Amino acid sequence: MILESIVLFGLLAILLYKWSTSTFEFFEKRNVPYNKPLPLIGNQKDFIFRKVSMFENVINHYNQFDTSIFGLFDLRSPAYGIRDPELLKQITIKEFDHFVNHRSAIKDGGLLDKAVNNLRDQKWKDMRSTLSPVFTGSKMRQIFGLINEVARESMEYLKKNKETHTDFNIKDYFTRFTNDVIASAVFGIKVNSYKDETNEFYVMGKRVTNLTIWQNFIFFLYANLKYVMRLFKVQLFDKKDTDYFLYLVMNAMRYRQKNKIFRPDMVNMMMEARGLFVNENDKKTSQNKEWSDDEIVAQFFVFFFAGFEPTSILMSFAVHELMANPDCQEKLREEILEVKANLDGKPLTYEVLQGMKYMDMVVSETLRRWPPAVVTDRECNKDFHYKDEKIDVTIKAGDYIWIPIAGYHLDEKYFPDPLKFDPERFSDENKGNIQPFTYFPFGTGPRICIASRFALLETKAILFYLLSEFELKPSCKSSIPMELKTGVINLAPKVGFWMNLVELSDKN
């Protein structure tokens, strides 16, 4: 019996090894340079064994090659790494019809499947055209009042709680801010996560954005056993969590439609897109596509999922760099105080904020130095042939494209002294020197992040208020230079974002 068990175990081990390495000749057959992978984990050894962060992992893969295309094994899945700006332009713009879709890693039948970033082909085009009017400049102008209101409330809390200003956890502060902005501007509900630290909306946000060990394991299983996982419909999120958002959105829509309530938030904008509002003649507005409740709610869910954590990360790295570079901080403060003086007690407006050049330079440089999304992808849907002096390959339908955003942003060929935080790269005099398709923090082409304007708007708003009232100083807990947490997908510091806040009024 023991011998039979040993033999069975040995056979299973051999089969597992054969299966896990069955793709490993992929690039050799295509004469594409690559590094030798390991069974199951491919070329992700350093990341999986927590030696590097995902940010460093992406940059390391990018820097190992000097060709326009290189091979990478993302676990056991082969991926073509793209490290040439002109080829990137070809893939994401000129030959977009060959690379319409993102790779479908998770297909669990849940809300994420129906979110715009996971939709495919015509379904994606239809949803994108439905959502695009929601994120125009005119709509952002309408929604700015809601963002501004939350920003002012957050500053009132900060000024009243002076005991928190030493060794201040700025990431927690920004997470609560983005939570309250999303609640107000996206879902149309009023919460204050500073006064009520355990409100249901905030707690639910933490639940769905802080992935558990089990959820990360589900990601791993989908990457290696996607057909088995889809067969058994293994869910990434608990149904009661996604039902919370379904209930929230649909109830709000029904109530507003019944009571003819208008509020300049995303609920109203999606109701307009869906044709649920009546005009003066009591007729429905026109619409191009009929969407199910799940499909509508899925867009709110992904806005929450993407906006809750990545935007607070952007804010946190921005203030970290301003803290570590006091000359940049002072220059931005001078611009803010000048704008504030010109407002002469009037509220901050969308137009005024958008006209702040140095503010835009600081945020742009933060996105270059610390892009919240360090990598993106595409899936080939029609064979695509590429040839240069070193590479001659046909990328076939179903093949996976890996686009290392962080690699481009930290490449000294495109950004000299790339580790230096230098907002002047994006000045009017210098930004024209940036080579196209080397800077794309929100992606590029038709698949660019649809909510990028929203993220930039709330980031600039909170920076305006924070720096108009406080000086950012290092604390004994601050990480200078920044050390990143290893073994996690999110861009995160090893010890957190800590600083001291000094009220400007106390210095005068």
Average of per-residue pLDDT values: 89
In the predicted model, the low-confidence regions spanning at least 5 consecutive residues are 278-287
Quote the beta fraction.
5-15%
- Structural domain tally: 1
The helix-strand sequence is HHHHEEHHHHEHHHHHHHHHEEEEHHEEH
Biggest sheet strand line-up: 1-2-7-4
CATH homologous superfamily assignment: Cytochrome P450
Overall geometry comes to: globular
Task: List how many beta strands DSSP finds.
Answer: 9
Describe the structure in your own words.
- 51% of the residues lie in helices and 8% in strands.
- The protein is α+β, with helices and mostly antiparallel strands.
- The model is unreliable at 278-287 (pLDDT under 50).
- The longest helix has 32 residues, at 293-324.
- The chain has helices spanning 2-20, 26-29, 45-48, 54-63, 85-94, 111-114, 121-131, 137-160, 170-186, 200-209, 213-231, 239-259, 266-274, 293-324, 326-343, 350-354, 357-369, 405-409, 452-469, 504-507; strands at residues 69-74, 77-82, 168-169, 376-379, 384-387, 392-395, 400-403, 470-473, 498-503.
- It has a single domain, classed as Orthogonal Bundle (Cytochrome p450).
- The strands form three sheets. The chain has a four-stranded mixed sheet with strand order 1-2-7-4. Strands 3-9-8 form a three-stranded antiparallel sheet.
- Helix 8 (137-160) crosses helix 9, helix 9 runs antiparallel to helix 14 and helix 15 packs across helix 19.
- The protein is built from 20 helices and nine strands.
